[in-house]
Amino acid sequence: MTKKRHFSQKEKHTILMSAQDIGVDKAAEIAGLHYTTVYGWRGDLEAMGKDAYLAYKPSRPGRGVKHITEKQEKEILDVWGKNPGYGPGQVRNQLRRQGITISIVTVRKILTGNGYKSSKKKDSKEQTWNRYEATRPLELAQMDILERYINKLKVYIILLIDDYSRFILGFRVLEETSVDCVIELVDEAVQRYGKMGELLTDRGFVFYSWRGINRFEKWLEVSNIDHIHASPHHPQTLGKVESLNRRIQSELFKQQQFSTLGHAVTGVEEWAEHYNYHRPHQGIGGVLTPSERFHGHTRKVLDKISRGVNLEQEDNDINRSLLSISRTDSGQIILNVLGQSLLFQGGHNGT
Predict the structure, then answer these.
(1) Tens digit of pLDDT per residue, the chain (351 long)?
(2) CA-to-CA distance for 79 and 218, rounded, in angstroms?
(3) Is 66 helix (H, G, I), strand (E, B) or coil?
(4) Angle, to 10 degrees, between the axis of helix 88-97 and the axis of helix 104-113?
């Protein structure tokens, strides 16, 4: 077995200086390294400065340089090529769903070496907020409106999401917003998936009236859906749907250009389908898709992943009919049929 070469900081610096003249790929080839290693060194040099970099003493010098196989590189780049909006964690988790285990360090090296730039790092001084998550599907939903431009046309994207699973219950792409279209969106989701117990929105004019109660609020009241309002100027309350807004921008609108409203509607529809049924979600453990959690397939999917089953090669279609089943923490089963929720416990159903 060939012993892995360990490079001193001075040797690394020499290779980096050579890379400035002949390019990273060529310098890495001459030194017998993978190009991602040189990119990693360059990042360290830029962050530390020359003097600190040369004086730095790695805590575990005996490890040498970790080898990245061509197969690993191809697997990583294949996933990233199909999902250019993914970051290292999402690529790693998608690979796990395919029965492939590669460390996030290796994934990040490959992506960085191929042009990936991480998003702005979170300010360590930024206030941290208490996270709340519903305990079952349809206990709580969140809804928000995102503004975008298609060429010079301003459009509004309304997203309705299940808090527990992050499953997109419905969306609209519109030139104008109205109370009617919001009611239609929520009603359609209720008829397809079942009634949510609570709905969280901001105080935008279609959701809330400062003078009495508007038609949307009245509709929720008649439908027996509790309406919760986020605090003014406090977007953290709507954290999950705000995160969804960022995802659709980075994974769709920054990756594709739409020429017409109809083209944009098709794009959002395809993205929502991928998001719900194929994209592993960091917020629910990293390897589950929203549909798997929403439809109660968590244990089955995690068992398959632990056995190295390639979920992408299975007929893993989730039932998308008007029937959905979920379970509460106390063991009660909730069956949603045509928008009506039935609660079962010990063979008896309740309302």
Answers:
(1) 345 567 888 888 889 898 888 888 888 888 888 888 888 788 778 877 888 778 777 655 444 445 778 888 889 999 988 888 888 888 888 888 888 888 888 888 888 888 888 765 544 444 444 557 888 999 999 999 999 999 889 999 999 999 999 999 999 999 999 999 999 999 999 999 999 999 999 888 888 877 778 899 999 999 999 998 876 554 456 789 898 999 999 999 999 999 999 999 999 999 999 999 999 988 888 889 999 999 988 888 888 888 888 887 775 555 554 455 555 555 566 565 544 455 655 544 444
(2) 46
(3) coil
(4) 120
Residue type for 237, please? T
Please, are residues 102 and 75 in contact by the beta-carbon 8 Å criterion?
Answer: yes
Cα 74 to Cα 85: distance, rounded to the nearest angstrom: 18
Query: Can you tell me which residue has the tokens 């009506």?
Result: 340
Cα–Cα distance measured from residue 43 to residue 116, given in angstroms and rounded to the nearest whole number:
13
Structural domains in the chain plus CATH codes: 9-113 (no CATH), 140-277 (3.30.420.10)
The DSSP H or E segment spanning 334 is: strand 333-337
Parallel, antiparallel or unpaired: strands 198-201 and 226-229? parallel
